[in-house]
Every structure is written in structure tokens, then in C-alpha cells.
Design brief:
alpha/beta, single chain, 3-stranded mixed sheet, 7-stranded parallel sheet, about 35% helix, Rossmann fold, 11 helices
């Protein structure tokens, strides 16, 4: 198959690209490198040769779709405080960008589109222990709202233009090459980085609030099964989750146990977790610190039964094994 991955220089996109190349497919990755990194894929000559420097908002985006069979749309802004800080940009990329890509696909060779949404759309829904795809969603932070609006655009194109589209709600994806360079890196990368450098980490969520973590290799298996399925989907939603959740303390303790180090940490003020983004708190109307605290203490556990049944696969890598692999990667990282 001929495959294009937008956001292909990011963590998930680059790992998927390498996986698909290994399966014998012709893969191109497209990225504007604002959030992605070339070193995520430069060890793969095929991806290096097939890299397209472009933006999903380009008016001539359709030119990149010639002879493409499968489109994975992963490009987007995912850092929650950055989306709050720059809401116009967040909607321009995460929502309008999706509309631009889908509209370009209408007059192209693309047969199936797999869109990366997020478990963040379940925020504010405490009605169920395990979030199901049928749960009512009522997001109000900019990131989750922009992605939910994008889901609705996917449904519009699937239903009105009979396009084959799958919506994936990613839970917390972890694994080697995960971004630990940004201002607020994913927790798994942050805690490993602090442990390896013998620095005392600050943990803002010390309560028993847990989140669902899925290892990158398991995620890739699902994404591949979706692309190779002969079934047509009309904006069908799938949780990409393990149905297992862990607290920040459990994850940190596991990391220190793997490294045979004593675990100690500072307790951070959850209300000040996003304080590195000054413009959220120095305007006439400031972001509610209570809302920040609610986000930090959010419990998010996915029900992964639907995707497991549909694609006859269950996640294989447990938390400890996945963390061990990230540790080995970050030990050897030369960037």
C-alpha cells in the first residue's frame, strides 16, 4: 500500500512509519517540524528519502495525496496548556486543518483515513469507571474541544460523502522516542529523565487518580489492523486503550525500582502546574486554577473491549516492560 502519515515526525507518526516500512509498504511522512523532530526518523533511510516538509493547512495539500491509498492523520497540537495559551492556533491546526485534509481527500486516490483523536474528549465525564466510545462527551478545555470538533468533521465527511474514516481516541501512549524535550513532557518521560539524572522529581498528582497507558507497539498493531481491514467504517470511534490504569506514584515507583534507586519526590501545587505559560494567568480574565487542578487530578480509564474484539488483538506490553524499554532508550539518547 501507498501510505501518507501527517505529523510523521512526531513520536507516534515516526514509529508507525518505521513499522509500516518494515511491513513492506511505501510510506511517506509529512510534517512542518514545529513539534516533530527529524531525528525521530532519520535512522530510517526510506522515511528520510520520503519526507515531505509541508503544513496540513496548505491550500494545495491535495498535491501530496497522489497515489496514496491510506492516510493516517496525526498532525496536531497536543500540549494542553499550549492550546489554552493559543486557542486560535489550536483550532486552526486541530480542527480547520482536519477539514482541509478531508476536503483534499474528496478528489484523491485515498481509500481510508485513520484520524488520531484523544481520550481527553472524556474530560468532565465521571459517570462511568471505564470510558466507552458511546459515553457522552462534554469537553471544555481548548485541546479536547478542538479534537472533538474534528471528530464531528470526520463524521460529516463520512456520512455526507461516503468516505471511509476511522476515529481513534488515543489514551496515554508511551514508549521510546516519546518527546521529553518539550516544556511539559509526558509524565513517563519526565520521571525517567529525572531518575536518570539523579534529580528529585516534582509530582503534582499524589492522589489515587489513575490513567490508562498503552505501549507504542500495541498501538501500532491496532493502527495496522485498521489500515489492512477490508471493512468500511463511517467515522467509527475506537478507544485505543488497555483497560488498565496507573497512578503517577505507581509509575514513578516502578521506574525507580527498575533502576534500583530510592524513590523520593517533591509535592507540587496542582493549581500551579501550568504556570510556565504566563499569559494564562496575567490577563484580565485568567484561567481557573481550580480547572487546572481538576485536569491534574483527572482519572481516565478506557474500555478497550470494542477495538480488541474488532481487530482480534489485545495489548501485550505491560507497564513495567514498557518503562524498561524507555529507560534504555533515554540512557543512550545523544540529542
Amino acid at each position: 500500500m501507498n501510505i501518507l502519515i501527517t505529523g510523521g515526525a512526531g513520536f507516534i507518526g515516526s514509529e508507525l512509519g518505521k513499522f509500516l516500512v518494515a511491513q513492506g509498504h511505501n510510506v511517506k511522512i509529512l510534517d512542518n517540524l514545529e513539534y516533530g523532530y527529524k531525528d525521530n526518523f532519520e535512522d530510517n533511510q526510506t522515511l528520510k528519502n520520503n519526507f515531505i516538509f509541508a503544513d496540513i493547512r496548505d491550500t494545495d495539500f491535495a498535491k501530496h495525496l497522489k497515489n496514496i491509498d491510506i492516510l493516517y492523520h496525526f498532525a496536531g497540537i497536543s500540549a494542553l496548556p499550549e492550546c489554552e495559551s493559543e486557542p486560535y492556533k489550536a483550532f486552526d491546526v486541530n480542527t480547520s486543518g482536519v477539514a482541509n485534509v478531508l476536503n483534499a481527500c474528496r478528489n484523491s486516490d485515498v481509500k481510508k483515513i485513520i484520524f488520531a483523536s484523544t481520550s481527553a474528549v472524556y474530560e468532565n465525564n465521571c459517570a462511568t469507571e471505564h470510558h466507552k466510545e458511546t459515553d457522552i462527551v462534554c469537553p471544555n478545555l481548548i485541546y479536547a474541544t478542538s479534537k472533538y470538533c474534528a471528530e464531528q468533521i470526520c463524521k460529516s465527511y463520512a456520512q455526507n460523502y461516503d468516505m471511509d474514516i476511522i476515529i481513534c481516541r488515543f489514551f496515554n501512549v508511551f514508549g521510546p522516542h516519546q518527546d521529553f524535550r518539550r516544556k511539559y513532557p509526558p509524565f513517563t518521560s519526565y520521571i525517567i529523565k529525572m531518575a536518570l539524572s539523579n534529580e528529585t522529581p516534582t509530582i503534582f498528582n499524589c492522589e489515587d487518580c489513575k490513567r490508562d497507558y498503552i505501549y507504542i507497539d500495541d498501538l501500532l498493531q491496532y493502527l495496522y489492523q485498521m489500515a489492512t481491514s477490508s471493512k468500511k467504517y463511517s467515522a467509527e470511534i475506537f478507544n485505543l486503550a488497555t483497560s488498565n490504569a496507573y497512578s503517577a506514584i505507581e509509575i514513578a515507583q516502578t521506574v525507580y525500582d527498575i533502576l534500583n534507586k530510592e524513590f523520593a519526590f517533591n509535592v507540587g501545587d496542582a493549581e500551579k502546574f501550568w504556570d510556565k505559560y504566563d499569559n494564562l494567568f496575567n490577563q484580565k480574565y485568567n484561567l481557573s486554577r481550580l480547572r487546572v487542578k481538576q485536569e491534574v487530578f483527572k482519572h481516565c480509564l478506557g474500555n478497550g473491549q470494542k477495538v480488541a474484539k474488532e481487530f482480534n488483538y489485545s495489548p501485550k506490553t505491560n507497564l513495567k516492560e514498557g518503562l524498561r524499554k524507555i529507560i534504555e532508550y533515554q540512557k543512550n539518547y545523544k540529542g
